Structure formats: C-alpha cells, structure tokens
C-alpha cells in the first residue's frame, strides 16, 4: 500500500494528480510534431503503415481491429462518451429473498390465463 510519504509532490493522498500538475510537466518537446510531419510526408507514411496492417489478411484480427480503430479515431474523431442516467436497465433494482426454489432455480409464476 502506498503511504503519503512515498507519493510524488504532484499527487494527492489518493495518488491522483493535483489540480494544475502533470506527470509530464515539460510536455511534448518543442518541434516534435513538426519533425514527425516532415519525416513522414505529413503523416501519410504513418497512415500507410496502419492501412497495411488493416489490409493484411495474415495479421491477427486484434491487430487489424486496432488498426481500424486508430484510423477511425484519427480520421473521424473518437466517439464521445454518452452518460445518461435514464438508460433502461440501469438504476435501482430489488432482490427478493425467497424467489428461488431449493435447487436454486427461480420461481416462475404460472401465467394468469392458467390460473
């Protein structure tokens, strides 16, 4: 377990970064983006490599899906996370004790037309 004295100065006692602090305080090196663009024909070479994986029939399905995801995320943007507290099936529920038979199977009442 982590103790408070072992935490870096930019972390709170739960281990999260303090507001305004970063794990990479210097950020991306200046000119790095420009260097990558210049070295890869504006990034086209990177896309060609990933397209090669996507189209490689001998590559694993996992590798091909990761390539597809990479391309879609960068070409169309990552999908936004949707939080909806009113999503059907999510929320409060009740467990009724005694609603199962001795063998563990649920008790299913007979339909009303059979009563």
Question: Quick gist of this model?
Answer:
The chain is built from three helices and no strands. The chain has 115 residues and is mainly alpha-helical.
Structure description:
By secondary structure, the protein is an all-alpha fold. It has a domain at 4-82. Helices cover 31% and strands 0% of the residues. It is built from three helices and no strands. The chain has helices at 32-39, 44-55, 61-76. α2 (44-55) runs antiparallel to α3 (61-76). The longest helix is centred in the middle third of the chain and has 16 residues, at 61-76. It is flat and about 75 Å long. 0% of the residues are buried. The model has no long low-confidence stretch (mean pLDDT 78).
